[in-house]
Design goal:
It comes from Pseudonocardia cypriaca. By secondary structure, this protein is of the alpha+beta class. The protein is built from two helices and four strands, in the order βαββαβ. It has a single domain, classed as Alpha-Beta Plaits. The protein is 24% helix and 22% strand. The structure holds iron/sulfur cluster.
């Protein structure tokens, strides 16, 4: 699965980083950095939780 970020929606709150820090990182300017474009093995549940937990609906998964 591929992780897609709608940068127009992302406000850099960092909830995704708190849930799945191996995949999401908010830089010093509040920009979201994807540490992996694809969902790594072993963290699919965390990534799914982060996608669902984003308050601005900025994240989605694509096949
Ligand atoms: S939780 Fe959503 S709005 Fe917050 S940094 Fe992650 S993608 Fe952006």
């Amino acid at each position: 699965m591929k992780i897609v970020v709608d940068r127009a929606r992302c406000t850099g709150i960092g909830i995704c980083e708190a849930i799945a820090p191996t995949v999401f990182e908010v830089d010093d300017d509040g920009g979201l950095v994807l540490l992996s474009q694809l969902v790594p093995h072993g963290v699919a549940a965390e990534v799914a939780e982060a996608v669902e937990g984003c308050p601005t609906l900025a994240l989605r998964l694509e096949p």
